[in-house]
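Supplementary Note 3. Input sequence used for the single-chain structure prediction.
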Amino acid sequence: MAVDRLSMIFAALADPTRRAILARLAEGDATVSELAEPFSISLPAISRHLKVLENAGLISRSRSAQWRSSSLEAAPLREVTAWMEPYRRFWDVNLDRLDAHLRRIQQDQTAAQPNDSEQERSEQQDSGTLERRKAT
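The predicted structure, written as discrete structure tokens, is reproduced below.
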């Protein structure tokens, strides 16, 4: 079964170790040993992660003498961003509408509540009426 490129990219990004490797490569090229430093996993495990990232097109690897360096490739990340953009716009619009609706509800509730001075006068009037009734 053929897997589309976008699925391969998302599968590669699904792992937190691979995302951390990409974050490190965003700072510049690095060797396998440099990429393995912050992790408590073996160099072969890091190499397997790099192979997944390379197959997804997220990194490229080059050999210089005995060192093998990895570099970040931005094009696949642009593909993911382009695919997600309509959904981001959808949520932005809907969250803006929700925010406006909540503001209207809050304004309606504020307008419906008597302010403190009106409430104090009402309580004073009720208290005065009660005292007059007791006096009679």
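The CA atoms of residues 32 and 118 lie 73 Å apart. The two ends are 94 Å apart (CA to CA).
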